[in-house]
Amino acid sequence: MTFLGTGTSCGIPQPGCHCPVCSSPDPHDKRLRCSALFESGDTHILIDCGPDFREQMLRIDWDKPFDAVFITHEHYDHVGGIDDLRPFTYHRPETHMYADPFCAQHLRERLPYCLVSHTYPGIPRLELHDIKPHDVIMVGDIKVTALKVMHGKLPIMGYRVGDIGYITDMTDIEEESVKLLEGIKLLVVNGLRHYEHPTHQTVEQACDFSRRIAALNGRDTIPTYLIHMSHHMGCHADEEAMLPKDIHLAYDGLGLTI
Description:
Layout: E1 2-5, E2 35-40, E3 43-47, H1 53-59, E4 68-70, H2 76-79, E5 95-99, H3 101-110, H4 112-115, E6 126-130, E7 136-139, E8 142-151, E9 154-161, E10 164-166, E11 172-173, H5 175-179, E12 186-190, H6 203-216, E13 224-227, H7 236-242, E14 247-249
Parallel strand pairs: 3-4, 4-5, 5-6, 10-12, 12-13, 13-14
Antiparallel strand pairs: 1-2, 2-3, 7-8, 8-9, 8-11, 9-10
């Protein structure tokens, strides 16, 4: 797994801001919008495709096609780079994209030339599929399970990708979705900042959720990486030093092997 972006909707640094985080020289404090790449053998999966997608691919010098793209929800910071998928779809009939029906409807309305009419030359070759919570999709040798989480009042998707749980923009989760994370070896979950937000978890809430998933798996702790962080979080080095055992701040470009 590679973290392509770990920042919230504005990214870090936020334009026009000169706070300690936005001014930090530490590369760990430079955060593009959230996205992640999963690889197993010759299978390649992308979760979310935000407005920084092109830059993210240039940073890792990526030239392989994607076997599937999974979208968590329709907010621009998670889908604003879909058109930039075009060079990664030219070498196959189509690339499969998955989203819940509400999100898929919005994508078809915003990108009809990509996802409805298919008449524009040079468009991304994408086949959009509606999925629902608990659906299981096999992509090559990777098993992906969709799970429902709440982003404030908006139901969105989290995903279990093999033995990794990947959840962003969550405030709450139902017990049926929690059960789908039994047996995971790594948890990725959002932690925006230290004080409450109406549609995102705080760092403390994310840590509580990590302990909940650890207990589900009969453990005291589970390796957990926080994503979707804002410049209100604090600098990476300071925050990392204060986190509980087995919980870390993810950062752009971090690669993990399970």
